[in-house]
Automatic annotation (TrEMBL):
This is Transcriptional regulator, LacI family. Pfam families: LacI (PF00356), Peripla_BP_3 (PF13377). The keyword DNA-binding applies. Keywords: DNA-binding, Transcription, Transcription regulation. Residues 48-102 form the HTH lacI-type domain. It comes from the Bacteria. InterPro entries: HTH_LacI, LacI/GalR-like_sensor, Lambda_DNA-bd_dom_sf, Peripla_BP_I. It comes from Siphonobacter aquaeclarae. GO terms for molecular function: DNA-binding transcription factor activity; transcription cis-regulatory region binding.
Length: 379
């Protein structure tokens, strides 16, 4: 109830436009125009709604909605005042409600195994660089290499009405029903890096086979002959592809495949030490790690044992970041260009969102670059 500031009556009060951005009132009993002193809004524990703004100004919620959406059938002065109060009350649009109304949230979901890994951080940067200018927001989830968490992330993103999803699977993921169901219902999905071959989504992958082949060939050309490989889980697709590249390089140079020189791990730091223990009796003269992090772990373990790199054992890894160039000796790596992987995956997803009828899913392979450093170069 509005009370006249002169006579104190409330029955004859009506709104009379705005004066300098403030609501003006008129008292029909004493024929007096007045405005109310502004009061700071009380601290809020919940998100401000359109109804809150309407009550604050004494207008209808539909008027507030029209003003905030830029409708021209609201006077410029009223629109400006509503927007001012909305900012004062820290109003944020309800994207889910907007999506229910318009079927558009302009939000995409991204699921990665671990945001702390520089590779995935660079992928996300590449995604952001493409989708932000197109007017899309990014909702990032990480599975922490857990299949159960990955499934929950997919369900949460679909329930949040994101318009599409980019996903790199966890190490644990071996079944893909959580992807197959939404994809079969027309939900846009693009895989990157660790992908699912069972579902016909668009995919962006590294040249795992070619990069591994180039790395092992480099080691062979340096004169190393007993080359071990520190691989990943046997069921992991990228591990199988890099192992195939390793085998093909040995075959090209007429060298036998020695099963005892193949060690499957899970990319954790202790994997490198366990592999080194397996090779203790018949030490290889070079090791190719399909994950550069394990190569760094192995380098540390070799230093602790007094084994010189590369004089007594050469090292090389797949993947690259600043640390690989700073350690001593610098680590020979394959640079996979994760930023470009993120860009390509994002472009494919936007294409799928905007042109679902003509979009044709395909696998896109991005080649990396061999970077030779001191850990493998013979002096």
């Amino acid at each position: 109830m509005i009370e006249c500031t002169r006579c104190g009556r409330v029955e004859g009060i009506k709104r009379a436009g705005f004066v300098r951005g403030q609501q003006r009132y008129f008292c029909r009993d004493c024929r007096y125009y007045f405005v109310l002193e502004k009061q700071a809004p009380a601290p809020r524990r919940r998100q401000t709604t359109i109804i809150d703004i309407a009550r604050h100004l004494g207008v209808s919620p539909s008027t507030v909605s029209k003003a905030l959406s830029g409708r021209q059938d609201i006077s410029p002065r009223t629109r400006e005042e509503i927007r001012r109060v909305a900012a004062e009350l820290q109003y944020q649009p309800n994207l889910l409600a907007q999506g229910l109304t318009s079927s558009k949230t302009f939000t995409i979901g991204v699921i990665i195994p671990n945001i702390e890994r520089p590779f995935f951080a660079s992928v996300v940067s590449g995604i952001q660089q493409v989708v932000s200018p197109a007017g899309y927001r990014v909702m990032i989830c990480q599975s922490n290499e857990s299949h159960a968490t990955e499934v929950a992330n997919v369900q949460a993103l679909v329930a949040s009405r994101v318009e599409g999803m980019l996903i790199c699977h966890s190490i644990e993921t071996e079944t893909f029903d959580h992807i197959a169901r939404p994809f079969a219902n027309g939900f846009p999905i693009v895989h990157f890096d660790r992908v699912c071959e069972e579902i016909a989504t668009a995919k962006v992958i590294q040249d795992d086979f070619g990069g591994a082949f180039a790395m092992v060939e480099h080691l062979l050309q340096q004169g190393y002959r007993r080359i071990a490989i520190l691989a990943g889980p046997e069921k992991l697709l990228i591990s199988r592809r890099r192992l195939a590249g390793y085998q093909a390089a040995l075959e090209k140079y007429g060298l036998p495949l020695e099963e005892e020189l193949i060690y499957h791990g899970d990319f954790r730091p202790e994997t490198a030490r366990r592999a080194l223990e397996q090779w203790e009796n018949q030490r290889p003269d070079a090791v190719f790690c399909i994950h550069y992090g394990n190569a760094i772990d192995l380098l540390q373990a070799l230093h602790e044992r007094g084994i010189r790199v590369p004089e007594e054992m050469a090292l090389a890894g797949f993947g690259d970041e600043l640390l690989t160039a700073l350690i001593e000796p610098g680590l020979t790596t394959i640079q996979p260009y994760p930023f470009q992987i993120g860009q390509k995956a994002a472009r494919l997803l936007l294409e799928q969102i905007h042109h679902p009828e003509s979009f044709v899913p395909a696998t896109h392979v991005l080649k990396g670059e061999l970077i030779v450093r001191g850990s493998s170069r013979k002096k």
